[in-house]
């Protein structure tokens, strides 16, 4: 139950003093009965303590049947003695009744009732018995409505009551008095201030419980069950029901006279030719056999009833930004420009000067409006007009003819460097990750290390046998080179790079030599090569090598190895694995995906993409009519180019289709090698016709290209660059 304090009036002061006296009497009665003193109880710090205090106070005022709880064992014996004493209960009931009677009397004295013309006491709210409202939902004292209280900030009152009397502002307590009131009285924590009515309201137990349920995210009303069982108001059985159960009317069985008249009219129109069929309409649309020989094309049918052809009037110029009522600042002339316009002659002055207005209401009438309308009408009346035909021009004919691709010279065209030193055919070249060094392999059984900028040979390895392929490890932390010599794969330290890279390379090869001392695997055997390298022996000649992007794995291809045609070697663990039990065709090339755990295996007719993580076939790319000779993957991993012996370079988009969406035929003989540039959107192809073609792939910005080619006819290497210098 809400309690409102009226400390502003003298009667309210007397009432509050009387209530305090009654509370003191009730407190004395509780002490005589052995109850605990409120001052001994701790102060409440949250609304749960305030709610428990409200429960105790309501239980005292309503003589609740709940027993008083006590924390001490000594107080429990005293409370049990009080319960057995009937005289103490009577004394407590008498004190509560006197307190309630005293409060009612004080309220009656402070606010005496005034009779209304109907005989009802004024100030009491008449509530209907069937209404849902309660006595607590009383209307507010202030009747100003939705007026902001800021309007009464400088006034001594905050509004008006029902009798049109001013509600004088009460003196507000400071924060210290409010804190003392909260700690001294039980109602302090449950008292809130109503700024609209300028009064303090004491929340009841039900209101505190309502606030607590709302803060916990529950429904305000306890009786509401959010999980009521769902009532199925509709049946799931399908029933055939008519739209209407009324009997059929008699008019449905009698022919309609209106429809009969309509049919008669349609038949008459068809007989007289007023309505034509579709075939007759098509014949009427056809051009007549005779036509006017000397008439203009399209002019004879466009003539009006007066015999003149209709020519639409030319459209006026649409208004621009300068003719707006509030144009941008750049369209407004400055003072100097205005002064210069005033000095001009009347013929040279502009017809319109832009001006800026704040709104359309401030825009005056255009002074030259009637003059311009009259001049336009006069021009349309006097000017000679003729209808001109539009010329239909093919847009493709306006495009200039481009030269033929054969006439365009690709860049670069100047021979910059020549690497001389091999005595036989050069089969393979491989640059390192930094682009500073270049390794080459030849049929003379030697592997040479070149410096790219100077063309100087810094080191030479002589290996017994024909070297088919060399591949530089892509890991910048290792200076390691792999060479395929007949049935062996030899790992050689290059001695380039930083001291840390050389130390890491020596340690890796030393661990491999130690591990090779144990028993070998039936697939491949790891052995020490001289004092610094490692040899991996295969059962069949190795023709191609490729490294993984991280530099720990590398794969070897032996086309005649049958089930061991593709082997994957791990450098850190010194092991060799055979990922395929059976190869579908003769394996030509193997490549690792630069980002994903995919392995591309190219046979003579197809390119298969295997998912190494799932150990399954992910995709199969369909090749052309010729045998596949080379393959390259874009650094992004989404595009693959394949070269074949039928003089064709096929471009595959892995996200688009398994078939090539573009095939390039610019070579005269079969292709032997294809490659993507690692940074620029360029790719190149080399063929047996002793030519290298460079293409732009439209992937990234166009820039220069460093291209190294291996000549199959002469025993030297060529570096091609543009005329400005080495790229």
- Note poorly predicted spans: 1-22, 28-47, 59-136, 700-727
Oligomeric state of the chains? single chain
Cα shape: extended
Number of helices: 12
Percentage beta strand: 15-25%
* Alpha carbon gyration radius: 52 Å
- Sheet/helix structural class: alpha+beta
What distance separates the N and C termini? 91 Å
Instruction: State the share of residues found in helices, binned by percent.
Output: 10-25%
The main sheet comes to:
5 strands, antiparallel
Strand order, biggest sheet? Answer: 13-14-15-17-16
Mean pLDDT: 74
Can you count the beta strands? 34
What does this structure look like?
With 727 residues, this protein is an alpha+beta fold. 23% of the residues lie in helices and 23% in strands. It contains twelve helices and 34 strands. A five-stranded antiparallel sheet has the order 13-14-15-17-16. A hairpin with a 4-residue loop joins strand 6 and strand 7. The radius of gyration is 52 Å and the shape is extended.
